[in-house]
Amino acid sequence: MTDRMTEELTRGVPRPTGAGELFQLLRDGRPRTRADLAAVTGQARSTVAARVDLLLSSGLVAPAGEAASTGGRPPVTFAFNPRARAVLAVDLGATHARLAVTDLAGQVLVEHHQPLAIAEGPDVVLDRVARVGTELVREAGREPTDLVSVGVGLPGPVDHGTGRPTNPPIMPGWDDADVPGHLGRLLGVPVLVDNDVNVMALGEHASTYPEVDHLLFIKVATGIGAGIISDGQIRRGAQGAAGDLGHIAVPGGRDLPCRCGNTGCLEAVASGSAIATALRSEGLEVASSSEVVALVRAGNLAASRAVREAGRDIGGVLAACVSLLNPSLIVVGGVVAEAGEHLLAGIREVVYRRSLPLATQHLRIVTTRTKGRAGVLGASAMAAEHVLSSAAIDASLG
Amino acid sequence: MTDRMTEELTRGVPRPTGAGELFQLLRDGRPRTRADLAAVTGQARSTVAARVDLLLSSGLVAPAGEAASTGGRPPVTFAFNPRARAVLAVDLGATHARLAVTDLAGQVLVEHHQPLAIAEGPDVVLDRVARVGTELVREAGREPTDLVSVGVGLPGPVDHGTGRPTNPPIMPGWDDADVPGHLGRLLGVPVLVDNDVNVMALGEHASTYPEVDHLLFIKVATGIGAGIISDGQIRRGAQGAAGDLGHIAVPGGRDLPCRCGNTGCLEAVASGSAIATALRSEGLEVASSSEVVALVRAGNLAASRAVREAGRDIGGVLAACVSLLNPSLIVVGGVVAEAGEHLLAGIREVVYRRSLPLATQHLRIVTTRTKGRAGVLGASAMAAEHVLSSAAIDASLG
Fold this sequence. Notes:
alpha/beta, homodimer, about 40% helix, 15 helices, Nucleotidyltransferase, domain 5, 5-stranded mixed β-sheet, disordered N terminus
C-alpha cells in the first residue's frame, strides 16, 4: 500500500490505545484490580497493566485501596477519579446566567447565579461568562489547567455540529455566532453548546435518572420545549430541532394565534405567557410566568384553574409524544412547573386518557427535583462526556 | 481474585477476539489488504493477520483478488462475503405471508407469497412458516446448515425483548405466544421478532436509504402505524410501543369514535377502513383499503377526495412527529400509499404548513419504492444484524 493510500484510509480515524475502552468500565466508580479488569475484558494481564498505567499517568484513574487478599500480598484496586479535572457548566437564560464548576462526575464544586441579559449580544455575554468562569475555577481551589472543557446551554435553537445558534427568536445578535470559537479562545478548552432544553434533559438524566433509558423532559416557561432521551442518549434529529413541541397544534385546543404565524400552537395556548395573557383578560394584574406561579401559590382560584387547563393542553400534546416515543418517564420543569400539582394534574388527566395502555402502564410523570440546576448539571455532563469518551481518552493518551 | 468473583464479573460478558470489530470495517463490501486494515485500526500487522484468518475460517470474509502492487508480489485483498450464509425473512400480515431467503446483505435469493390467515393461530401459522422456509432454503440451492437466523414481522405489538406478541388486536390466539421458541425449535436457529411497521422501517432504511440517519416510516393500511429510525437505529421505546401513532388525536380532526374507546384518533378518521366507511356513507360499494385504491386508480373523484382528506389528517399528526423528531425523510407505505399522489399531496400540504421551517427545510416526504418488500427486507436486515454484530462474531469465533 502506498503512503498516500494509508493516509487516505486512516484520515480522521483515531488509533485506539484500548485505554479509552478500559476506562469506560471504570467510569461507574467501582474499584477493580488489574485481575478483575483482565477477567472482564478477556485481555492479557500485560495488556491491561499497560493500559492501567496509561490511565494512572493521566490522573483519570487512581489507586483505590487494596482488595481482600486470597493469600499473599493483597492486590491494589483502581477507580475513576472524577476530581482529576474540572469542567465549567454554563446555563444562559433570557435574563439570567447560572454557572458552575463541577468535577468530571457532575459534582458541583462552586456555583454562581447572576442577572445577565442575553440581548446584550454574544461579545458582552461570552466575555463575562469567561471572566466569571475563570474566577469560579479559582474559587473552587483548582488550577486554570485543571479545566478541560465547557458546556453551554442557550435559550434558542443551536446547530449542534457547529455550536452556533440558528435564528434564535429571543437572542438578538446571536444568529450564527461562533460561541465555541469565542469561548474557546478565551478559555483555551473545547466548548460544547446545545439548546437549553436538551441540556436540561441531559441534566435530569445524568443527575437523577441515569437508569432511565427513555425519558422526555418538558420545559414549561415563557415558551415550551422538550428534550428527548431515547435508548440512553439525547436525540437531536437531523437539524438539531428535535423536541420543538411548542408549535405542535393542540388537539381540540383553542384556535389562538401564535407568533409563528399558525394558530392553536401549544405555546400560544399553554405557555407561561399564554396563561398570563388569559388571566389579564379576566382582569388580573399578571405580567410574567413567575407572577402566574406566585398567584397559584397564593391560592388564587382563577390562576390555579388556568394552570390546570394549560396542563390539559400540554397533556394533549404529550399524549402524542407518549404514543410516538413510548418513554417510561416524563419530567416536567421550567418556571410554570413550580406551580405544583395543578399543572401536573392537568397533564396526567389527558395523557393517561389519550394514550394506549401499553404505552402508559409503566409511565411516570413527575416534576423536576433539580431545583433550577438541570441546566448546569446537563452542561456539565455534556462537557465531561466530551473528554471521557473512549475516543477522547485514546486521543489524549495516544 | 477468587474464581467465584471472576465468574461474577465475567458473566454474560463476551470475551472479544477483536475479529468482530475488524469485521464491521469490512461490512461495506470494499476489498482491503491486511496492511489497509492494520493502517485503519492502528493494530499490529500480526494481530490483524490472526483476526483475518479467524474471519476467513468462518467464511464471512473471503479473498477478493489482488491489490495493485507497489513492487514485489501484489498483496491479497479481503472483503465481506455475504453469500457465506443465508437468513429467512418472514413478513406476516392479517391474511397473507411473504417469505424470502436472502444472503447476509439482504439480497433476495428466492421469495414466496401466499394467502395465510393469521387468525389460524400460532401453531398452524408457524408450522407452515417453518415448512415453507425450509423448502425455500432448498430452492435457493442452499444447505439447511447455511441458515443462521430468522427475522419475523408480525401485524401487532411485540415485546421486542422476548419476541412475544402483546395483546395483538387482529391476531386471535397469539397473545404472549412464544414465536422465537416455536420457530427456533423447528428451524434450529435464533429467531428475531418485531411488529410489522418497525420491520418495514428497517427494510426501507437498509435497502433504500442506508445513508439517512433520521427516517420515519408510516404505514397507511387497514390500520396506521409508524417505525422510527433515529441516529441510524430503530427506536422502540420503553415497552416496544414507540411509533404507535394510530391513536394520536388529529388536531382539528373529526370526532369519530375509535375502536380504542377514544374519539378522533388518526386511525378512526384516516385509515383505509375509515376511508372505505366514509365512501360507503356516500353510497359507494367499497369494502377494503384495496378497493379504495382501485377506485382512486379508476379516477373516481369521491375516492380521490377522501384519500386526499385522509392525507391531510395524517399530515396533521405527522407535523407533530416532525416537530418532535426532526427526521430528514418520511417514507409513506402500506396499501393506501398505492393510491399515489392524492395521499402524498394531502400529507405534504399540512406537514409543510404546520411544522417550523428549521425542521422542514431539508425534509423529504416520499412513497415507498420497495413494492411490498419492505417487510421481508427489514426482517432480513434484523436477522442478519443478529449474527453480524461485533459481539455475535466474537461469540461465534471465541
